[in-house]
Amino acid sequence: MKNLKLLLFFFSLSAMLVTASCSKEEANNEKVELGEIKFDRERIGTGQYVTASCQLPKDNSGDKGYEWTSQPILSFTTEIKNGVSYAKFFIPYETTGTIEIELNDKYNSLKPAKAEINVEKTDVNNSFWGDNLELTLKNRPELVELETVYCGKMIEYIKNYTGDSYWGYYSFDDNKLVEVSEIRNINSSKEDFWYINKFNLLIRTKLRYYGFTVDKAELINKDGSNEDYQHESTDNNYFTEIASELINNGAEIHIHAHNESTNLLLSALPNTSTSGTDKISYISKYTPRDKQ
Asked: For 76-110, how does the pLDDT look when each residue is reduced to its tens digit (9 = 90+)?
């Protein structure tokens, strides 16, 4: 009899716990849902500034505190406008793959909104081929219109190629990005071969960052003759000779390379437009693979 009473006691306690648990679950189910998280673009890439947005419930868009979070961690700049919460964030250049993003209220009184994005390495310099002008200007706000192209002075974006700024030029056809060029004028009071060493560093950095394969590397002399350019050499005497050909004799170096989406023409040219230590210009020209 005593054991029976004890059994009834535990049965009653279990029923109370189950009831409490169900009540808590029902309360969670009754929470007002936040809207769907949307993004200002279909493809999201490295080095881009992206804006996420989410419609807030009516009567819950004013004083209530909202918080955007992500995994891995990103930094958000947020605002609420016309009942919509906006979050602007930057995708680091080294970040690719899945990022989980969530919007919740700080008091946990609403069902959070969740979304996943897939970050790809961009085709070129923060952009994908075919991006329209509006989207390109979001990714590169320093661009301004100059006749038939958009250009701007930019800080070096490839992590292991440090220190230099450069001029970027973006061309569009039918409101689609079809060409990007980067021009670097290098200042140095060092020996001339240093210019070529710096150029070779740019070659290695571009090949590694974008996964380019070299198709042809050539030195074109002023008389039109050409020879293979040994960009993987470590002989500074060779590079001194090449630098002299460029600086004194008007020769040019052209590296032709490609990856799955992009053709690259990387050139070192004698700089005839300036004086002083700007002896050589490096020009990187990118075009889509379907633009032969």
From this structure: 999 999 999 999 999 998 899 999 999 998 887 88
In angstroms, rounded to a whole number, what is the distance separating the alpha carbons of residues 215 and 256? 5
- DSSP-assigned states of every residue in 190-223: S-THHHHHHHHHHHHHHHHHHT-EEEEEEEE-TT
Beta carbons of 48 and 91 less than 8 angstroms apart: yes
Residue 284 domain-assigned?
A: yes
Residue 54, beta-bridge partner list: 37, 85
Instruction: With both helix axes pointing from N to C terminus, report the angle between 236-249 and 193-210 in degrees, rounded to the nearest 10.
Output: 100
Q: What is the largest CA-CA distance in the chain?
A: 113
State which of 120, 143, 162 marks the end of a domain: 120
Residue 6 lies in a domain: no
Q: Within this chain, do residues 60 and 150 fall inside the same structural domain, yes or no?
A: no
Among residues 120, 155, 180, which one ends one of the domains? 120
- Taking the alpha carbons at both ends of the chain, their separation in whole angstroms is 92
Q: Is residue 110 part of a domain?
A: yes
Cβ partners under 8 Å of residue 285, min gap 6: 179, 180, 181, 264, 265, 266, 267
Measured CA to CA, the distance from residue 281 to residue 254 in angstroms comes to 12
In this predicted model, which residue has the larger pLDDT, 187 or 246? 246
On whether both 178 and 215 belong to a single domain, the answer is: yes
pLDDT greater at residue 116 or residue 11: 116
pTM score, whole prediction = 0.80
DSSP letter at 91 equals -
Full domain range(s) for residue 90: 32-120
Q: How far apart are CA 18 and CA 13, in angstroms?
A: 9
